[in-house]
């Protein structure tokens, strides 16, 4: 037999899962993903990416070169989460 404490934990877990599935998910839309990917692609040319308000971050030169050579793949990767969730 399960203890009263264990039963309460199970009930709380079930209620939490039910409530989480009932809430709408607030996520970026496709346009936002493309826009942010384009901002990064434009910004990486100097070897740094600025993320306001956190500052500038150095991009590994090999990664920056890959982004410059294959921007379409980077954009596709930025869109991946949008299409996986639907």
Offer a quick outline of the entry:
The protein is mainly α and 86 residues long.
Could you list some keywords that capture this structure?
86 residues, mainly alpha, 9% strand, two-stranded antiparallel ribbon
What does this structure look like?
By secondary structure, the chain is mainly alpha-helical. The chain has a domain at 26-85. Helices cover 66% and strands 9% of the residues. The chain is built from four helices and two strands, in the order ααββαα. The protein has helices at residues 4-22, 30-43, 61-69, 71-85; strands at 48-51, 55-58. It has a two-stranded antiparallel sheet with strand order 1-2. A hairpin with a 3-residue loop joins β1 (48-51) and β2 (55-58). The chain is elongated, with a radius of gyration of 21 Å. The mean pLDDT is 86.
Could you give the topology of this structure?
Blueprint: H1 4-22, H2 30-43, E1 48-51, E2 55-58, H3 61-69, H4 71-85
Antiparallel strand pairs: 1-2
Helix run count: 4
**Average pLDDT for all residues:** 86
Give helix % range.
55-70%
Oligomer: single chain
State the shape: elongated
Order of helices and strands: HHEEHH
* Ends distance: 41 Å
What is the spatial order of strands in the main beta sheet? Answer: 1-2
DSSP E strands, number: 2
What characterizes the major β-sheet? 2 strands, antiparallel
What percentage of the residues does DSSP assign to strands (E)?
5-15%
Based on secondary structure, the structural category is: mainly alpha
Instruction: Report Rg.
Output: 21 Å
Residue windows where pLDDT falls under 50 for at least 5 positions: none
